[in-house]
Specification:
DNA repair; disordered N terminus; mainly alpha
Amino acid sequence: MLSSPNQPQPSQHDSPHLTSSENGQNPSPEQLQRERKVKTLQASIDDLQSQTQQLEGEIAEVKAKLKNDPSITVKRHIRLLHDYNEIKDVAQGLMGLIAEARGVRQIEVQREFGAGEKD
């Protein structure tokens, strides 16, 4: 609701907890509506602060449950990929030797051992 320029605006020194009736005056309908809005907004703020605290607590719990720091996990995955690639290279070399000894193509030996073309 917009106020007209002739209406006095509440000052920062007015106590937000005292209604006009507590100050010895009868509150106007606008003042009552404004006070209701303030109470509603304050309740919303309190609710949002409570939700924020709850979510922050949940985030802390989830972080505590993580097994490792993400950078440690990434380093481990890189090491495992490196190990895999070395083993794969050795296996391909051995299959190449078997294929050469048999006089067949390496892909035939790979299929025999269950290793696809993309493995």
